[in-house]
Amino acid sequence: xxxxxxxRLQRLAESRGPAIRRETPQQExxxxxxxxQWQRSLEILQRPEEPALNAIRxxxxxxxxxxxxxxxxxxxxxxxVDCKAGCAWCCHTPVRSTxxxxxxxxxxxxxxxxxxxxxxxxRPSLLSNFAACPLLVEGQCxxxxxxxxxCRGYHSLDVGACKQRFDSRNPSLEPxxxxxxxxxxxxxxxxxxxxxxxxxxxxxxxxxxLAVVALQxxxxxxxxxxxxxxxxxxxxxVL
Length: 239
Ligand code: SF4
Description:
By secondary structure, this protein is mainly α. Helices cover 55% and strands 3% of the residues. Helix 3 (51-77) runs antiparallel to helix 8. The protein starts with a helix and ends in a 12-residue tail after the last helix.
């Protein structure tokens, strides 16, 4: 992080931070999830300069908070989610994720003691609708513990609708979802993204496959440039 970003970070850490509204249980939960992750993000970013490690820590903290948000929100919403392990209809799409999530997924791939090369995929196939996500290996997510927040929150209340959408290759057939549950799971990510935005760090969405493929060539360099306000992910940005 450059000097002016450090100053902004210091000012944010000294500010009162986001407030919690308590009008409804759902609003209070959303604001609590947001506030906790806001503070956690500042704590991680204030650690001594180790860009790659800090980015991975930040990503893991978002994932941990999203996991907790899923558990608590499901108890509140009582949604009857129809998703099961091994079901991957929704993994056939050019996933749009945050840059931080792409870093988390790439780091998870790098830490696996298996052949790191993603299946050979060119740019058009990584962008094509209904093509398998490059992180889907033999029907399973190869980075499941570090899958992006969009994959954590995305769910279906009717798996038949997911299959129908896939079989008909009709992207407008969105399966039924509890949008409030989806929103609550995304609150920690929103908080971290807002902190990063205020520091001047690129928060544009990326095509997950493109970003992970780029990261496998220069993980440390891209992450350091990104955390320093650079546009290392320009070629993976969602147009
Ligand atoms: S990252 Fe994992 S969960 Fe998300 S679309 Fe790809 S294979 Fe599926």
